[in-house]
Amino acid sequence: MRQHPLGLVGLAVTLMLASLMVAYGMGKATKQVLVSYDISSPITLHEPVIVQFSMNNRLDEKIKFDLGHNRKSNFLIKVTKPDGSIVNVPPLPAEDVGAIGRVSLEPLQTFSQRLLLNEWYDFSAPGDYQIEIRLKTPIRTKSGLTVKSSTTKQLSLQVHLRNEQMLKQECDKLIKAVAQSSSYSEVADAATALSYIKDPVVVPYLKTVLAADKRLNVIAIDGLRRVGTDDALEEIISAAQSQNHETAAYAKGVLSRMKGSVQNPVLKEKIRNLLP
Amino acid sequence: MSVQVVNESGLNNLIGALYSADSTATGTADVPLVDSGPVNHSTGSYPWRLDGDYSTLVSITNTLAQPTRYLATIKYKGGTYSPNLRELAAGETTLFDLRKIRDEQIPDKDGSVIPRSVTGGQFSWSLIGGDTLRLIGRAQVTSPSKRVSSSFSCPVCCPNSFAGFEFNPSSSAGPVGGTAILAVDGFYTDCSFNVYGPYGVSPYGLWVEYPSVLSLEMISNGSAQMGCLSLGQSRFGGFVDGDWYDNDGMDCYARSGPFWGEGNGAVVCAIPVNFRKTAASNAGGGVLHFEYKWDSNTSKLADLSSCTVGEKVDYNAADLPFASPPFPSGINPSNPTIRNVSGADGALQDNHSTPGTFVTPYSARSVTASQIYRYSCPCHNAGAFETLLGPHDIVRSVSQKTNGRWKFTITKTGSSAKIDPLP
Q: Is the pLDDT of residue A19 over 50?
């Protein structure tokens, strides 16, 4: 079969156009907003579940997005449990004082923050979890256009059987951060991660947090409440007798709400004596 | 390139001449041979010009076996171009091509360039160091079109003298845990008392009057880092060995010794100031939304990274849990409610909601909470909380309207949100 000359030209033009389209596409691909979520997995049961969220602006203009109250409440999370059941986790409440969630990002800048998923969901059993995480609000350019970047990611989390040694190592690492950092954000992040280790092993560490910085008393007492063992209750009772009026008041408030569920008669009596 | 003539004859006098020939042009140029001579010959001050096809090349050569530093300055009408201090290795020659420096806009140590419109000025240079060192220099000004070649090797009275050094800024302040970078600037003078500098120097024997307040270390030539350790003030300083020259109109007399420089540092406690409401709105559904901002007394929010800013809300214990009906069931906030954000954020939001569904039968009820905004900085008053705003009331009330229906109102500092009517 004889090839028509124009056919060759047409083929050449088509190839050129295809090349241009690929080049354009590649160019577009590099000029976008990259959103990533990286999870630490596997972990041992009761270890904090940390996701590193980051957003890299590769556009030529500034972008804006809103992470919500305390830079958390606009993240939506869906958990597929090891047994296959799905939990649509409600967003974190946007109540009381919190950090402002609106973030502006200049071209080539990256924003990142750690998300402690235990604040959303209690990964209370070992097994394989699938987690869908997304930002419910759009990313917009300075000029108001919506950026077409996916802010949704599927994550896999393996939770192994409880390993006390590993939990203690994690607690040691976090308490070190509480003790050594001069940045309140870092201190509070570490203390909060400790407070979500819902395991008796954390009790002495939370006691240390409580003694270290009165600004962390709420975080520590809430952590002890979540652990809920007799040891943890003893520490809350001790905090309720603290010389620090605020720590004592907060601990009493927590005991007041817990008193109905306390089984140990000795602790019940102690709480009764403490509360008006 | 340089040509060195070594007299190994044992005789004291030697006469010679050197000519430079350009194979592409029809001229030769006289290249005077010079002896390194006394130390005042280790300087130079030459005219330079670039008008037309004139070019100016300046060479400086280290004639001895030990490395030697020099300072060069290119002056022109309206400005000065200051290359960095440089060291020449034994026998090394450095060349300044004035046209290249100007046309390629090569920046000097301060980032300045010679404007393209400049066509001439003065080039001066000097040995930096004691009188056991020797440099020689020469400027060659040529114009092929005019068949001109001029050679200059005029010295000045004496080499430049080290005039001293200073920490810049000489007085600075930073927060506890902060650091500040200080320039350590050395200066030189010529025998006409013109000052050259700053040039980075590296003092030795660094001292701090109160080491518990400040630390000081050199991080590079010309840069020191001051560390802020605890509240207070302290002087600090160090020493730089320098050479200077006296002259009696005929000869130069070298002197050398340590120069003393010092500064003062203050370590301050960064605290939040100017706490102010920046937004108040009815967010709908009976939710009140507020935003607040603050500054740092040091003007840098990052200095507040160890501080917290937040709220404390106290309820009457008798009001908890909220009476239901009429309030939604299960509202039992922490008492006190305490929330903090990092002081370095510089802003916070505060939402007051009453989550859930109001419960019938409605009745007139009110819950009043008392709120303060406050801060805590470890360096201030042992980290005690200090009030920024308040106390003020947050009032939630269910009340009956004149038409017999019921409404919910929440108010704070003159702002309110409603559910009107309640379903």
A: no
